[in-house]
Each structure stands twice: as C-alpha cells, then as structure tokens.
Design a protein that fits this description.
The complex is a heterodimer. By secondary structure, chain A is α+β, with helices and mostly antiparallel strands. Chain A has helices at residues 3-17, 21-24, 34-56, 58-64, 66-79, 94-99, 110-125, 165-171, 207-217, 222-235, 270-279, and strands at 27-28, 148-152, 157-161, 189-196, 199-204, 283-288. In chain A, strands 3-4-5 form a three-stranded antiparallel sheet, with helices on both faces. In chain B, helix 2 packs parallel to helix 3 (48-58), helix 5 packs across helix 6 and helix 9 packs across helix 10 (264-288). The two termini of chain B are 28 Å apart. Classes of the chains: A alpha+beta, B alpha/beta. At the A-B interface, helix 1, strand 1 and helix 3 of A face helix 3, helix 4, strand 5, strand 6 and helix 5 of B.
C-alpha cells in the first residue's frame, strides 16, 4: 500500500471509528491537538450524512425525535457508510438497520415506515423511462406469452406491511392535522409508490394486484406473476373490492382511478390486469425468458 | 476554452452563483440576469426530474459542473463508474467548465462525503497527477482543480500547497480554481499569509475564482474558521478577491452559498457586489499602468 493509501485508511478509522492514534501521529497540532483538528472533519462527515438521511426519512425523524434520530443515524453511518458519491443513493439499508437496532425494537412499525419513505425517495430520484404502448407486445407469439418478462418503470416500488404505515406516514407530515391516536393493530397495507410526472404518488392495491405487480417488479415471468396473483385472489376473495381514494398532503398525491382493483372473485383477470398496467404507463420494456 | 460567443462574454464579465435546488423554480420562472450557474454533478447523475430541471435551466444560462465526489486524491485512483456518469452528464449539459477539488473522499470503496486533506508529498503529487490526467483523458477536456479549505496539516507534507497546485497544473495541463475564501480560511487556521499564497499561484493556470462565507469558531482561545458557505463574504475575503482579480485578470467568478441558503435575491446581490469589487480592481489596475 502507498503511504497515501495508509494515511487514508487511518483517516477513515479516525472519522468513522474514533480510532485517531494512527493518523494523529502524522498531524501538526498548530496550537490544538491533532484529535481536535480531526474532530472538525468527523463532525462534517457525520453532520452532512445525517442531514442527508434526515431529508430522506423525515417521518422516522419525527417519530423517534431528532436527538434519537441523530444517534441512530451515527450508528448507521459507522456501520454502513456510503459506497458511492451520489448521496441520493444513500440510505437503502437504513430500514433494515432500524429493524435490527435493539433500542427501536418496540417500535414495530418503524422499519416498514422507513421502507415507505425510502420507496418515495427512490421514486422521486429514479431515472426516466418512456412507457410502452400495449401494441409493443403485438409481435409476441401466443406460445411465448407465458415467458414474457415485463420491465416496470424504474420509479415503481411495492411494499406490504402488517402495520398501518400509510396512516402513520400521512399523519406525521408537517402539514397533517391528525385524527387522534393510531391503533397500530388496525391492519396492514399493500402499497404501490411511483412517480407521476414530477410528483411522487402512492395508492393501496388489492392483494392479487399487489402480488401480480410485485412479481413483475422482481422480474418474474408473466406466467409466474399470474400464478402468484391467482393464489392471492383465491386466498382473499373478500378483498377484491376497490380501495377508497386516499386523502393525502400536497406533493404526494394518490392517482385517480382504482379500476385495477377489480379482481374477479375467485380468480384473477390477467387481461384486465395487463391493460391496467399499460394504462398506468407502468411498462417500459420487455424480454422473453428462456422456457 | 473558447471565449468567442456571447455566452462566453457573460461568463467572463458577470459573476455566477452556485445553483441549489430550492432556487431552481424561481430561476426558471424569473430568469434573473446572472452571468452563469454552477452545480454539483453528483446531484443530477441519476437522471429523472432533477436532470430535466437542470436542462431547462441550461437552455438559458452557461453552466459549470463543480464535482465533489471524484476524489482526485484517492490513492486507489478515481472510480470508473463515477467517471462514466460524469462524462454522460458533461455530454448532456455541455458545461463551459468542469472542476474538482485537491482533496480526497474515497478510500477502500467507502465515500466519506467531505473534502478531506492530503499530505503534500512527491508521492501524493504523482497520485493526483495520474488521477487528473486519467480524468482529463477520459472526458476529453481539461478540468480545473480547486484549492481546499483545511483544518489540519500533515507533518509529512514537504511541498507548500500553492507550489503543489502549480506543479499539478504544469504536469497535467489542468487549470486551477482559486477559491479565495478557502485561502483565507486555511491561512487563519494555520497562521499563514493569505496574500502571499495568492502571489504563488501561476496566473495563467487560473480558470475560475470562488467566493463564499465561512463560520468563525474558537477552540481553546484559538480562532478556527469553518468553510460552511453559510453567510455573506467577509471584508477580508473581498479584499483578497480584489487582489486576485488584479493578479489573474477577470476570470469567471462565482458566489457559493449552501448552509442557511438565503432568498435568491440576496444571493444575486452578493454576485453583483462581486462584479463591483472586480470592476474596481480592474480600474485600479488600469490606472496604475
């Protein structure tokens, strides 16, 4: 390793792990101690990364209060520092870190609320992609349809939670009025988050539609997505009704029209599900998996 | 650099401002008469709506890309993937300048999100020269390298910073971005002479000047300036800017403001003040001849 490489390794240890002795030996005091001088850089690194996390996870910050957020953010930064210079990509691991962080263990809804905030952030910063028209699939031979893999818009994210995270998120917006305490046992949600124009939007999905789109998002074939959606539809016949439009604050607004929730009772209507997908401008590419 | 067309004249004679996201909509709506704009490329590399807004602004203003993530001082070299993203953004936005810092932020793949200091040794000069040359070759253009603000010095440093920058420019053909606030911050923090530093920067290499505010703090009775870009430019830095214009001529100048971001009008007023300071430095220069 070059002498410079060693300095940088030791400097990182000082900034992230408080191990200042190795690099301190190479630093001029200039009237202060080397540790005091290193502390300026450590504070800059920690404060700037904590601010970035706060911007991405404002509801988590509100739920745990700012002092605790600073503490958990510091622990996260030390454990999983950024691996790339584009800070918009930093924080994907934060929800899982919260889930494994003992001091937060009682806040069972926290990791999924953080996942929702991450999906919203990811949707806001995702690349653009031109949606395909349904006619793009016209050349596919009928026998190949089962092996079709649809690529969804990069901004689309799907999240299921046993906790009422949508209500938690909504009532912890700076502008929220609040309708009183939230019963965390009041039921879970299946949400789709995406960008619509320049705005991030989200809406609840029925179980079968959620299973269908989640499978496509993972890159499953159309056949497999259909199977998984059908199983959900059979398991949740009573849930195959349209979900009501949500009242949410400005900037993050729900999309109109919930017709994709019209799952047929006792089954899953693939044609309708596909046409909804194209109508939502959700498909941006496709390929064929080898049979 | 091609200085022939109208946009180029606007870059050279009018002071630019660092464009931050909260000001973007107002800039687009009101199109204020600011000379040019500078952004951090890292904020636009993902594409999406952020890039679309930047391209809308770019249609009306000259643009400079001022990187904070390339880590020119990394012993392990610069990250190729990041360089590809930068090259793509350069092609999309056609900036008149691309700049970075004499610092490092990446080690063993970890990005520390700060402009960290380098020991100024022959080895470091070789490493930074190699990195700068690689970047310039890959981008197919020269870049400007900025003097950092610093809070510590290494006992192993053998080359004073201005001589290090001059050698880097000589070896790689890169230009220099002279940040007069950074010179002042480091000079106070280490008890050095800011004006003397400026005299040791080779004028021909300077392609841009930065101005910003800093935060004054104290540690055990010792003054320590923090380069937070969080306030107006102080009198000493204005004086240093006048000296810089006197020495380098009217090179593209920029006001940066990040922390405590003011209303756009206040930022633009600071840019107009810089134009006035530069103009009087040039007048004084002419009358002295």
């Amino acid at each position: 390793m070059s002498a410079l490489g060693k300095v940088q390794h030791d400097f990182r240890d000082a900034v992230l792990n408080d191990e200042v002795s190795a690099v301190a030996a190479l630093i001029l005091g200039d009237g202060l101690t080397p540790a005091e001088r290193l502390a300026v850089y450590r504070n800059n690194v920690m404060a700037s990364l904590t601010a970035a996390l706060k911007e991405t996870f404002p509801v988590i910050c509100r739920l745990v209060d700012e002092r605790f957020f600073d503490y958990v953010a510091h622990e996260f930064i030390k454990s999983q520092p950024p691996r790339e210079p584009c800070l918009a990509a930093y924080g994907a691991g934060f929800p899982a870190f919260l889930a494994a962080f003992p001091p937060c263990a009682e806040l069972v809804y926290l990791p999924d609320t953080a996942r929702l905030e991450w999906l919203m952030h990811a949707a806001a910063t995702a690349a653009d992609a031109a949606p395909l028209a349904p006619s793009a699939l016209q050349g596919i031979a009928p026998e190949d349809t089962a092996h079709l893999v649809l690529r969804l818009h990069p901004s689309i994210g799907l999240l299921a939670s046993p906790w009422p995270i949508e209500r938690i998120w909504r009532e912890n917006q700076a502008t929220a009025e609040g309708d009183g305490p939230i019963d965390i046992g009041s039921g879970g949600v299946r949400l789709e988050v995406r960008r619509h124009g320049a705005d991030v939007v989200y809406r609840p999905l029925a179980p079968a539609t959620f299973a269908f789109r989640s499978a496509l998002r993972r890159g499953e074939t159309l056949e497999r997505a259909f199977e998984l959606a059908g199983a959900e539809a059979d398991a949740n016949p009573e849930d195959a009704r349209p979900t009501p439009t949500q009242q949410v604050p400005k900037k993050i607004v729900p999309k109109e029209n919930a017709s994709e929730n019209r799952d047929l009772s006792g089954g899953f209507d693939l044609t309708a599900a596909l046409s909804d997908l194209f109508r939502d401008e959700a498909v941006v590419g496709f390929s064929l998996a080898s049979p | 650099m091609d200085r022939t067309d109208g946009m180029q004249r606007s870059i050279a004679t009018k002071v630019g401002v660092g464009l931050r996201a909260p000001h973007l909509a107002e800039i687009l709506a009101t199109r204020p008469p600011v000379g040019w704009l500078e952004v951090h490329p890292e904020n636009y590399m993902g594409g999406g709506p952020a890039l679309a807004r930047l391209l809308a602004v770019r249609a009306h203003y000259p643009l400079s890309l001022h990187g904070v993530g390339l880590s020119l001082g990394s012993a392990e070299g610069v990250d190729r993937e990041h360089l590809v993203l930068l090259k793509t953004l350069v092609a999309e936005t056609e900036p008149f300048a691309v700049s970075e810092h004499l610092s490092w932020s990446v080690t063993e793949g970890v990005y520390l999100n700060d402009l960290l200091p380098l020991p100024y040794t022959e080895e470091t000069l070789d490493i930074v020269s190699r990195n700068v040359s690689l970047v310039q070759e890959f981008l197919g253009r020269t870049i400007l390298v900025e003097n950092p603000s610093a809070y510590l010095r290494f006992s192993t440093s053998r080359i004073p910073e201005p001589e290090f920058l001059a050698a880097l420019a000589r070896q790689t053909g890169c230009g220099l971005l002279c940040d007069v606030n950074n010179i002042f911050v480091s000079a106070v923090n280490f008890g050095l002479d800011a004006a003397a530093y400026l005299e040791r920067i080779p004028p021909d290499a300077v392609g841009e000047i930065h101005l910003a505010g800093h935060f004054r703090s104290e540690r055990r009775g010792r003054q320590l300036l923090i380069d937070d870009h969080g306030s107006t430019v102080c009198d000493e830095v204005w004086a240093l800017y006048g000296r810089a214009i006197d020495r380098f001529g009217m090179v593209p100048s920029l006001v940066e403001w990040d922390k405590n971001l003011p209303a756009l009008a206040e930022l633009l007023a600071e840019a107009r003040k810089a134009e006035a300071v530069a103009a009087s430095a040039l007048v004084a220069d002419v009358s002295a001849r």
